[in-house]
Amino acid sequence: MRPIRVLVAKPGLDGHDRGAKVIARALKDAGMEVIYTGLRQTPDQIVQIAIQEDVDVIAMSILSGAHNTLLPKVVHLLKEEGVYDDILVIGGGVIPDDDIPYLKEKGIAEIFTPGTPTSVTIDFIRQNIKREIV
Q1: Signal peptide position in this chain (predicted)?
Q2: What's the pTM?
Q3: Alpha carbon distance 92, 41 (integer Å)
Q4: Is the dihedral of CA 97, 103, 105, 111 positive or negative?
């Protein structure tokens, strides 16, 4: 069985990636294959990398406050490309609790805020992956 492939992405102008790197390491330690985009990626770049790398999950980390714009834009582009039904999309970072229902309504499967144990994120990915890993 191949490992779950996860794209860890930093959308927008946010210049802080410590949380993304912590998540990337935890996912690797859990046996997942991780591709990290680096800082300051556009939604289009994230979607194109996800398609090129044939990922199972896009995990976006955002601290800039632009989450209500950038995260739904990624979902929209995935739908335009016809791959949304194959890719689990999650987000994390400093996101107000009041914004989480909106993001879920827009297609983000789950939001993980600061202090969430990495094991919770790992378990969520394993339990909600959209396509069978063979």
Answers
A1: none
A2: 0.96
A3: 15
A4: negative
The residue whose two tokens read 């983000």 is 108
Q: Higher-confidence residue: 12 or 50? A: 50
**Angle between helices 67-81 and 43-53 in degrees, nearest 10:** 40
Q: Is the pLDDT of residue 134 over 80?
A: no
> What is the C-alpha separation between 59 and 23, in angstroms, rounded?
9
Q: Are strands 5-9 and 33-36 parallel, antiparallel or unpaired?
A: parallel
